[in-house]
Design a protein that fits this description.
Arc Repressor Mutant, subunit A, 22 helices, binds glutamic acid, alpha/beta, Glutamyl-tRNA Synthetase, domain 2, single chain, elongated
């Protein structure tokens, strides 16, 4: 393994969402590119907001996307003693101190600052308490928090972010922030830095919402004498109104599992999410896994926020058109054998799976999938638009039925005759079919389009689809004849409807 160590560190307070998945993808790509280590850390120290379901959702989502981690999941809550001992080391080396100020006193000071229209900052009352005073207060069991002693000199925390460039935060704008609460619980700002130091994380790739904490975390690193990692704070993903994407506002469309359920392929998701805020100089759109790993670099991460076209108020809207087109691209072009496991899952879920598709009907099945996928966008299309190929129950597109099978309120009168002729066509192949249809058209004085549209609708339920003769060959004479005879509203001899 190389020397790169990265991590994805979600707080398990909800399902894996688009922004989190994107952060995970960037870290995973970076680790794979440099043959490094990708750690999964669950930042579950906020016990009230963390849930078991959320943890499971994150693990499932990452697995579905194919983002295998090399270490973890490490649960932050299991490392409380590391965090506390780091805080005590900071006290011993003079980088932190115990603060005994009561909540009430601090609240009064805050209100006074507010009344005077000044920004409140902890005033450092306990920064330099004499050792004896500290000992006395402790002996009296006075509760205390542990605060970091921010330098009170001119100067600033300065670092070069790989995405945002040089970032500077003046010491005077950072208060002596709390590292450990009065109840003995470490704060996130401490726990996060201590875990990154312990795990030897070399690159912290996260969203720009993490930037506000970085100067404080750098002070923790410095106090502990640890080598600083490189930081890369990625731009955010916004909705079309340029506001932050959130579960509250956008509902389930922000969750990765929504895309699984809607019939997206995991690699299409990864490819699409990688392009939210990252690009190659030539704006390439499609990448195999190896190509994406090769192409990925931190320089390609843009500073401007990206937009994910999410429309929670439109019930017909599935997703960003670009994501849909990337999914269609993979669905139509990936080797059929690779598509099979996804298809099987999809067809099983919709009761359209037949074990024969893997056995004696395998050739037929692969051919059919290849034929029909050229118009599909989603895996779910196989069980909706493609249901007629795999089973006997399928939905008819009612407007197609009305338009293509009826004329002046009546079903085309020649449908039954066509069914009879097709049923006995022997041999049943492209040449015999074409010849038979040709003769049928001239005998009944029909235009080809009328016949094609009517038959296609009757046998597949859809008005559009793959090449007509191919559709007929794929379905075979019995199914075609049966479906033609079953056209709604057709008066036919029930005995013939075998
Ligand atoms: N737990 C933090 C979050 O979910 C991530 C912090 C980080 O990556 O440093 O926002």
């Amino acid at each position: 393994m190389g020397s790169v160590v990265v991590r994805f560190a979600p707080s398990p307070t909800g399902y894996l969402h688009i922004g989190g998945a994107r952060t995970a993808i960037f870290n995973w790509l970076y680790a794979r590119k440099y043959n490094g280590k990708f750690i999964l850390r669950i930042e579950d120290t906020d016990a009230e907001r963390s849930t078991v379901e959320a943890i499971q959702g994150i693990l499932d989502g990452l697995r579905w996307l194919g983002l295998q981690w090399d270490e973890g999941p490490n649960f932050q809550s299991h490392y409380t003693s590391d965090h506390l001992s780091a805080a005590h080391r900071l006290i011993e080396s003079g980088y932190a101190y115990k603060c005994f100020c009561s909540k009430e006193v601090l609240e009064e000071k805050r209100q006074a600052a507010q009344a005077a229209k000044k920004t409140y900052q902890y005033d450092g009352t306990c920064r330099n308490l004499p050792a004896q005073t500290i000992a006395d207060l402790e002996a009296a069991h006075r509760p205390y928090v542990i605060r970091l002693k921010v330098p009170r000199t001119e100067g600033a925390v300065v670092f070069d972010d790989q995405v945002c460039g040089r970032v500077e935060k003046r010491y005077q704008d950072i208060e002596d922030f709390v590292l450990v609460r009065a109840n003995g619980m470490p704060l996130y700002v401490l726990a996060n830095a201590v875990d990154d130091i312990r795990d030897g994380v070399t690159h912290i790739i996260r969203g720009q919402d993490g930037l506000a904490n970085t100067p404080k975390q750098i002070l923790v690193y410095q106090g502990l004498g640890a080598k600083l990692p490189l930081f890369a704070h990625m731009s955010l993903t916004l909705d079309p109104q340029k506001t932050k994407i959130s579960k509250r506002k956008h509902g389930t469309q922000v969750a990765i599992h929504y895309y699984k359920e809607k019939g997206f392929l995991p690699w299409a998701m990864v490819n699409f999410l990688a392009l939210l805020g990252w690009a190659t100089p030539e704006s390439r759109e499609f990448f195999s896994k190896e190509e994406l790993i090769q192409a990925f670099n931190l320089d390609g991460i843009g500073r401007t926020n990206s937009v994910f076209n999410i429309q929670p108020d439109d019930p017909k809207f599935i997703t960003d058109p670009k994501l849909l087109s990337i999914n269609a691209h993979y669905l139509r072009s990936m080797p059929i054998e690779e598509l099979l496991p996804y298809l099987k899952e999809q067809l099983l879920a919709s009761s359209l799976w037949n074990p024969a598709f893997e056995k004696d009907q395998k050739q037929w099945f692969l051919h059919t999938v290849d034929l029909i996928r050229s118009r599909f966008h989603l895996l779910t299309d196989f069980s909706t638009l493609g249901a007629a190929y795999f089973g006997e129950t399928f939905q008819m597109d009612q407007s197609a039925v009305k338009k293509n099978l009826f004329e002046q309120g009546r079903v085309h009168p020649w449908i039954t005759a066509l069914a009879d002729e097709l049923a006995v066509l022997d041999p049943f192949n492209a040449q015999t079919l074409e010849a038979m249809l040709h003769s049928f058209l001239s005998r009944y004085q029909l235009k080809p389009g009328k016949l094609i549209n009517a038959v296609r609708t009757a046998v597949t339920g859809q008005s559009v689809g793959p090449e007509f003769i191919q559709v007929l060959l794929c379905l075979g004479p019995e199914r075609i004849a049966r479906r033609l005879r079953q056209v709604p509203g057709l008066s036919f001899d029930v005995k013939n409807n075998s």
